[in-house]
């Protein structure tokens, strides 16, 4: 993918202006290049902030770029594991660009996306799950997402997986010993013991898979679409939820121009609310028809559809049809306008029996609606604790390991040979080891690091 032997440079802070901006240089020449940039005659001292003026060469004249503070992290005690110098300058885009250009003149190469973290992976500073956690931490939009990423960066997931892998290894070793010394007529592990141990391992894997369902929602966020006939109060509900909760800024492009969408933090989950109000199915207008098409697409992609009913007017055939339509999928029924006298009771619409009563106008019931959404989305009633596993790639590997363990258990029960059982255990271990990805194929590495921006 990248060469790891040269010296790379990039702006490590986001584009735009700020109090400070950081240029990062990594590789064998990092300290020498930074020293020349600062016009130093002596070497920098590791881990000591060095103040100086960075210069560039302008036709033989030294032209000052900025006053900076440079810190040298000597290999292997650095983010990437090789020599790293971080130069803190004023957060001015032309200043930072000139620092990078001058570092290139002095022998560095512009870094590719994610290349610093890739080096950290190559140098064994981070495993693949931790490198992915760096991207998640940078990309987090809610504090809960950040905490889950931080835990994984700290290695909690790797530790959990390693412990399960160790139990598999231990069992496999004893099965193999039984295989290697058949003449002793002695089994290092009986079939019953092996079965019990595999059951315990399967339970641990099941727990992870279960947690992964919530984890995925925490990491990826959810799309919640408001549905209902005109005037039931979808827009009002949208505003009540979006206005009351802190709207969060994401760099995910808005769903469409025609449907209103806003991403908000509900119990730590990044929930993108989509209001399809104003688009009518029977429209003759080409633009509206396009709006309807997009609204339908939003429906199809929705994690949960909020079916909004008006409690103050009798249910219509349209309401009943919508309840019917959405009955099969993940939906949550909301009865709005409960500040008004009820025109129908929940018994009127069997399908709306689990409805949550709210008033977009008074705000009554909105907390219950938020709680209901969290439960519907995650299958859990609280989301304070960061889930151990959040990434679909990791989850897929854990599921593959679980399936292999299941097959091994069936084989043991069927009295299959140790070889067959061992083959499944090996498969399970390979799946688990792929989470940390110590020997990951290039394709996977490319996929993981393509998510990073330059400078990370
Ligand atoms: P939409 O077409 O489904 O998006 O509905 P709107 O949000 O535009 O609301 C339609 C009408 O119902 C507006 O006049 C709102 O003020 C009113 N409305 C919305 N929510 C409530 C509510 O909780 N109570 C009452 N009394 N009126 C509401």
What report would you give on this structure?
- By secondary structure, the chain is an alpha/beta fold.
- 45% of the residues lie in helices and 18% in strands.
- The protein has 14 helices and twelve strands.
- The protein has helices at residues 30-37, 93-105, 115-122, 128-139, 143-153, 156-180, 191-220, 234-244, 286-301, 317-326, 366-378, 392-413, 418-436, 442-449; strands at residues 8-11, 18-26, 50-58, 61-73, 84-91, 109-110, 222-227, 260-266, 269-275, 304-310, 331-336, 356-357.
- Strands 3-4-5-2-1-6 form a six-stranded mixed beta sheet.
- α6 packs antiparallel against α7, α6 (156-180) runs antiparallel to α13 and α12 packs antiparallel against α13 (418-436).
- The chain is flat.
- Residues 249-257 have low confidence and may be disordered.
- It binds guanosine-5'-diphosphate (GDP).
- The site of guanosine-5'-diphosphate has 16 residues, from α8.
Counting copies of identical and different chains, the oligomeric state is: single chain
The fraction of residues in strands falls at 15-25%
Major sheet: arrangement of strands = 3-4-5-2-1-6
> Which overall shape is indicated by the principal axes computed on the Cα atoms?
flat
Which structural class best describes the helix and strand composition? alpha/beta
The averaged pLDDT comes out at 88
Annotation, overall tally of beta strands = 12
> Percent of residues in helical segments?
40-55%
Counted by DSSP, the helix tally is 14
CA radius of gyration: 29 Å
Separation of termini? 16 Å
Tell me about the largest β-sheet.
Answer: 6 strands, mixed
Give, in order, the helices and strands: EEHEEEHEHHHHHEHEEHEHEEHHHH
Unique ligands: guanosine-5'-diphosphate
> What low-confidence regions span 5 or more consecutive residues with pLDDT below 50?
249-257
């Amino acid at each position: 993918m990248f060469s790891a032997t040269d010296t790379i440079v990039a702006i490590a802070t986001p584009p735009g202006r700020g109090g400070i901006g950081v240029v990062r240089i990594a590789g064998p020449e990092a300290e020498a290049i930074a020293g020349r940039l600062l016009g130093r005659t002596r070497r920098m001292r590791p881990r000591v902030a060095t103040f100086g003026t960075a210069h560039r060469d302008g036709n033989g004249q030294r032209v000052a770029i900025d006053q900076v503070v440079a810190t040298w992290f000597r290999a292997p005690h650095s983010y990437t594991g090789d020599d790293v110098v971080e130069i803190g300058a004023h957060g001015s885009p032309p200043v930072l660009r000139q620092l990078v250009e001058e570092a290139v003149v002095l022998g560095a190469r512009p870094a590719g996306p994610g290349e610093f973290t890739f080096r950290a992976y190559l140098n064994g500073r981070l495993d693949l799950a931790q490198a992915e956690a760096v991207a998640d931490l940078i990309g987090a939009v809610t504090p809960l997402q950040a905490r889950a990423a931080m835990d994984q960066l700290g290695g909690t997931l790797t530790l959990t997986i390693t412990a399960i892998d160790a139990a598999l290894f231990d069992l496999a070793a004893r099965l193999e010993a039984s295989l290697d010394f058949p003449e002793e007529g002695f089994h290092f592990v009986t079939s019953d013991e092996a079965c019990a141990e595999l059951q315990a391992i399967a339970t641990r894997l099941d727990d992870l898979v279960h947690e992964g369902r919530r984890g995925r929602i925490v990491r990826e966020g959810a799309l919640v679409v408001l549905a209902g006939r005109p005037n039931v109060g979808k827009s009002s509900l949208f505003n009540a939820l979006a206005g009351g909760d802190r709207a969060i800024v994401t760099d995910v492009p808005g769903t469409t121009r025609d449907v209103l969408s806003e991403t908000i933090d509900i119990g730590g989950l990044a929930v993108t609310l989509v209001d399809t109000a104003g688009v009518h199915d029977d429209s003759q207008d080409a633009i509206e028809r396009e709006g309807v098409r997009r609204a339908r697409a939003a429906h199809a992609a929705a994690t949960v559809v909020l079916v909004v009913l008006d409690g103050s007017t009798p249910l219509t055939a349209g309401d009943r049809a919508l309840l019917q339509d959405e009955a099969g999928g993940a939906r949550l029924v909301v009865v709005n306008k409960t500040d008004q006298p009820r025109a129908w009771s929940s018994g009127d619409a069997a399908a709306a029996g689990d409805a949550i009563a709210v008033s977009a106008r008074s705000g009554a019931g909105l907390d219950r609606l938020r709680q209901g959404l969290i439960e519907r989305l995650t299958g859990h009633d609280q989301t304070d604790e960061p889930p151990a596993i959040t990434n679909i790639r990791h989850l897929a590997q854990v599921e593959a390991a679980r399936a292999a363990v299941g097959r091994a258990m069936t084989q043991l029960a069927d009295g299959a040979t140790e070889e067959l059982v061992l083959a499944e255990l090996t498969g399970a271990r390979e799946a688990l080891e792929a989470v940390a990805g110590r020997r990951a194929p290039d394709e996977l590495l490319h996929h993981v690091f393509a998510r990073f921006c330059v400078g990370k």
